[in-house]
Design a protein that fits this description.
By secondary structure, the protein is mainly alpha-helical. Among the domains are: 58 residues, Herpes Virus-1 (2-Layer Sandwich); 90 residues. Helices cover 56% and strands 7% of the residues. It has seven helices and four strands; from the N terminus they run H-E-E-H-E-H-H-H-E-H-H. The strands form two sheets. A two-stranded antiparallel ribbon has the order 1-2. A two-stranded antiparallel ribbon has the order 3-4. Helix 4 runs antiparallel to helix 5. The longest helix is centred in the middle third of the chain and has 38 residues. The protein is rod-shaped, with a radius of gyration of 33 Å.
Length: 221
């Protein structure tokens, strides 16, 4: 192997940039400036570095507590999001449209149902006091009962549908807090050569003897 080529390869490995595996940003260009890069799982090299906020966001979106590469189990604490967050961002335009439609129907049907039932009851009382026939009274009472049952059945079915949508959304959208052990936090925008040379990713073993031989050859030059 040519000496110049060996030196170039080792230099590129030693100067590998430390970036977050999720957002591909460094400590200076992370979503929160100055947030450290931490090694929180069994992955090695640049594949094992995360911003804590990026990891928590990814675990919340993917609805998992494990690394998808090394399957390391993170110690997490999950808190379901509240109803107001669901109303602001239900996750689907169809769900938002259904909520708006049902809410408008509720605003319209509720006063109409109350007014109709009140008129039926008032009419039944009137005919009961000033008329000897009971047909009108029984008819109005049956109509008021039918309207009341219809309204409550619609209301219960609608609430049940939206509760199911909310619980399903809540399972997939949670505030995740990761309790981690700080293994590695580089203070410079480059990884130490020992961290990168140990392994490039999980599942790809590095030939340590070759690396040590290459380093020895470089030092002897």
């Amino acid at each position: 192997m040519p000496k110049n080529r060996l030196k170039t390869g080792l230099s590129s490995v030693n100067n590998g940039p430390a970036v977050c595996r999720i957002c591909h940003g460094s400590e200076l260009s992370s979503p929160t400036k100055g947030e450290p890069l931490l090694s929180l799982c069994k992955c090695r090299g640049t594949m094992g570095l995360f911003h804590p906020s990026c990891l928590e966001t990814w675990l919340s979106i993917s609805n998992t507590d494990k690394c998808e590469i090394c399957h390391y189990q993170f110690a997490t604490e999950r808190h379901p999001k509240c109803v107001t967050q669901f109303i602001k961002s239900p996750g689907s335009p169809l769900v938002m449209r259904n909520m708006i439609t049902d809410f408008m129907c509720f605003l319209i049907l509720t006063p109409l149902a109350i007014l109709s039932i009140w008129l039926c009851i008032s009419g039944a009382l009137y005919y009961g006091n000033y008329s000897a026939t009971a047909v009108e009274v029984s008819g109005l009472i049956c109509l008021a009962t039918f309207l009341l049952l219809t309204y409550f059945i619609w209301l219960l079915v609608t609430l049940r549908y939206h509760c199911q949508i909310y619980y399903s959304w809540q399972e997939k959208n949670q505030n995740v807090k990761v309790h981690f052990v700080r293994k590695f936090a580089p203070s410079s925008p480059f990884l130490p050569s020992s961290e990168i040379l140990s392994s490039n990713s999980v599942g790809h073993d590095v030939n340590n003897n070759f690396i040590y031989s290459a380093l020895a050859l470089q030092n002897s030059v």
